[in-house]
Design goal:
The protein is built from eleven helices and nine strands. By secondary structure, it is α/β, with parallel strands linked by helices. It has two domains: 201 residues, Alpha/Beta hydrolase fold, catalytic domain (Rossmann fold, 3-Layer(aba) Sandwich), CATH 3.40.50.1820; 62 residues, no CATH class. The strands form two sheets. Strands 1-3-2-4-5-8-9 form a seven-stranded mixed β-sheet, sandwiched between helices. Helix 1 crosses helix 11 and helix 2 crosses helix 3. The longest helix has 15 residues. The chain is globular and about 55 Å long.
């Protein structure tokens, strides 16, 4: 459901009356789309009957690819527009990777009704290096013209930038094709996403999550045990934040999941999310 001049979103069918439902925003990561989380959200619908789930295409992505936002603050402001369109603020927000830091910024700036913020394998620190796969995707999007390329040649051209078959398959969801299966364009605003990534890397969220303020939403970091995005230094900061927050911030781990938690271990992820949401009712 598009918002005039704002983000595109989809509300999943709910198992309770709209007047009684609690709202949960679900945010994808960099280069993702709302449909990437459809399966997880559908499982949550079946298990969390008091909730309605709103899948959102972030600015510069999917059906919101023509919406411009280049900082975490700007992305959070766009989410506030979705809340305005719905007529209520979310009671919970779930964000993966880039979406996780955007969820935290929204929680910090706009969400007076928010009870739970769930960050899925998103670094909370500033700095860090860009994952080689992410840089490969940017190189492909910025340097390679694929207009007119047949779908049969598309994967080969993408693979030349060092992208795995699985990553190419996932990325192809952002491609638009002609009726003859020739590439037309990406549903990604590459320039804005590059700026968003820079801002993501510049923001440190530990002062917010570690604040022992009971009026702030409870924040849960779900960390993927096999993710390569966590240095020993940051893991120490996660532990310190959990102690400093006096129970407002916690970290849970899915040991056998990589960064794409919702793909690697969807059942374990859903089990954690169900418990967190039911405890927030």
């Amino acid at each position: 459901m598009p918002v005039d001049g704002g983000l595109d979103f989809k509300i999943l069918p709910i198992n309770t009356s709209p007047q009684r439902a609690l709202t949960c925003f679900v945010l994808h990561g960099l280069f993702g789309q709302k449909k990437n989380w459809q399966g997880v959200a559908q499982t949550l619908v079946e298990s969390c009957r008091s909730w309605r789930f709103v899948l959102i295409d972030l600015a510069g992505h999917g059906s919101s690819h023509d919406v411009v936002a280049e900082t975490l603050d700007a992305h959070a402001q766009k989410l506030s527009g979705v809340a305005l369109e719905l007529g209520e603020e979310p009671h919970a927000i779930i964000g993966h990777s880039l979406g996780g830091k955007i969820a935290l910024r929204y929680s910090e700036r706009y969400a007076s009704e928010l009870k739970a913020c769930v960050v899925v394998d998103s670094s909370l620190a500033a700095g860090g290096t860009i994952d080689t796969a992410i840089e490969g995707i940017f190189s492909l999007l910025e340097k390679e013209s694929l207009v007119g390329v047949k779908s049969s040649d598309f994967r080969k051209r993408c693979a030349a930038f060092g992208l795995s078959a699985g990553l190419v398959s996932w990325l192809s969801g952002n491609a638009r094709w002609s009726s003859t299966r020739h590439f037309e364009h990406w549903t990604l605003d590459v320039r804005s996403l590059r700026k968003t990534l820079r801002d993501y890397q510049s923001q440190d969220m530990y002062s917010y999550v570690s604040a022992p303020d009971p009026t702030l939403p409870k924040t849960t970091l779900i960390r993927a045990g096999k993710s390569t995005r966590w240095s020993s230094l940051e893991l120490d900061r996660v532990e310190m934040a959990s102690h400093s927050s006096m129970g407002r911030f916690e970290c849970q781990v899915i040991p056998d999941a990589g960064h794409w938690v919702h793909v690697d271990q969807p059942e374990a992820l859903c089990a954690m999310l169900v418990d967190l949401l039911k405890n927030s009712e």
